[in-house]
Amino acid sequence: MKKNLLSITLIALFFSLSIKAQTTGTLSVVFTPTVPASPIWYNSANAGKYVIAVWIQSSAGTFAATKYRYFGGSTNDHLPNWVAKSASSTVGATTGATRSSFATMTFTWNGKNAAGSSVLTDGAYDVIIEETWGHGSSNHTSTLTITKGTSPATVTPTNTSWVTGASLIWQPDLTSKVNELSSSNPEVIVYPNPSQGVFNIDYKSANTIKVFNTIGTCIYSEEINGSNNGNKAIDLSRFANGIYVITVSNKEYTSNHKVILNK
After folding, report:
1. What pTM was computed for the model?
2. Backbone angles phi, psi at 236, to 5 degrees
3. Exposed/middle/buried for 5, CB within 10 Å: 0-12, 13-18, 19+?
4. What is the C-alpha to C-alpha distance for residues 27 and 24, in angstroms, rounded to an integer?
5. C-alpha dihedral sign at 71, 76, 77, 83
6. Alpha-carbon Rg of the chain, whole angstroms?
7. Among 115, 195, 150, 114, which residue's Cα sits nearest to residue 20?
8. Residues 135, 43: contact at Cβ < 8 Å?
């Protein structure tokens, strides 16, 4: 009974850690800023000019990094939301003077903080685009949302009066193993990891092999009948890319192995 409780505790710990996983990868963003139908230009000399800031924050509003910041010497106050959120931080950002071009803008993000020293927790993230056209009263903020995690994601937001042609693509780096599960047993080896579908399991003794997804659902189960010094190949290619836990059990222990499916 104590060993069963320990097994349950280890699996529960894994799922708890998975919820707070920190996955590196690449977020690729492309969009085209547009001028609204009736902007309020400061004067004729400023017609067609605008300032813009683009940054990333969590869905809870925690600032991650500035990606673009363009404004003139006296127009910093025309980006009030960016200033309040970022404390005017431009670490790692592309910067410049007031813009007059509405050309397509692109950037990438690696899932880390602005300094690049810490991988941020997985979850929903917002790309915020703040624009002001010649006068502070013609300010607008657009929000584009995507989920950073162990699975690839693509979002193509609907065109608006301020942003068109937007596309957000998150591609996780599934070879990075942040928050690795450490409850495996040296008498069990699971390989390759990551795998495109088939995982090989070498074991000295096993009664049961099970596979769980990150919400705790058992998606595969097989009785081994107490065989010794065996090898078993299991094919998970029918399931979605992501993280899974393979558990190998006998009467003495349960060995948990965090694996990555990347087809």
Report:
1. 0.63
2. -105, 15
3. exposed
4. 10
5. positive
6. 25
7. 150
8. no
